[in-house]
Amino acid sequence: MPEKFDDSDMKIVGAPQKKADDVDFQGFLAESSRQHFNGNIAKAKTLGANIVSSFSYSAAPEELVELIRQSGVEPTDEVLRQARFLSVFSAEISLERFLPSPLLAEIAKSAMYDVLMQFSPDFYDELARSGAFSFYYMSAAKGKVTDARVGKQFAVLCGSEGDAALSALGRTLHAANMAVYKKAIRGFVFV
């Protein structure tokens, strides 16, 4: 009978896992308490719930369709679907970038997805199955999401890699989305 292979000295290659001892529970509790008592957690939940209105439409708004046409792109069902996915991605990035703490960003994103799942379950499922966010995040160099990279991925997701008009449209949509979401976030006056 062959000897059993002893792999106790083998290491798994990759990023080291955080141990429970490495997590700053006291810091997390203090941050949670501070954000709760200054009203930021309630604001983050409301923001996340309200932001859903910008992409939970059943029919694309006429101004979106017109912007797509002005960009030299035919507003096909796939382009409109990808524009909607991009709006959700832009919202997620905006929450991460413009909220004063990662805790508040996570709370707002959670509220956003909860409301989206409740009011647009078909769209939520379609978004979850799409993998679009993976493409956008993979295109980020050193964790930096740029309008140009998002534009290129938008063209890929629309099925036309390298299409200059679709790339420009993706850049324009992402930049416009980010500006709208940034303004909405600032309107909540987080402390």
Order of helices and strands: HHHHHHHHH
The number of strands is 0
User: Quaternary status of these chains?
Assistant: single chain
Secondary-structure-derived class: mainly alpha
Rg over CA atoms: 20 Å
Whole-number average pLDDT?
Answer: 88
Alpha plus pi helix count: 9
Shape: globular
Amount of beta strand:
under 5%
Amino-to-carboxy terminus distance: 69 Å
Biggest sheet record: none
Which residue ranges are poorly predicted, with pLDDT under 50 across at least 5 consecutive positions? Answer: 7-15
Helix fraction? 55-70%
Describe this entry's structure for a reader.
With 191 residues, this protein is an all-alpha fold. It is globular and about 50 Å long. It has helices at 25-37, 40-51, 62-70, 77-98, 102-119, 121-130, 132-138, 147-157, 164-187. The model is unreliable at 7-15 (pLDDT under 50).
Short description, anyone?
This protein is mainly α and 191 residues long. It has helices spanning 25-37, 40-51, 62-70, 77-98, 102-119, 121-130, 132-138, 147-157, 164-187.
Blueprint (SSEs and pairs):
Layout: H1 25-37, H2 40-51, H3 62-70, H4 77-98, H5 102-119, H6 121-130, H7 132-138, H8 147-157, H9 164-187
Helix pairs in contact: 2-5, 4-5, 4-9, 5-6, 8-9
List keywords for this structure.
191 residues, 0% strand
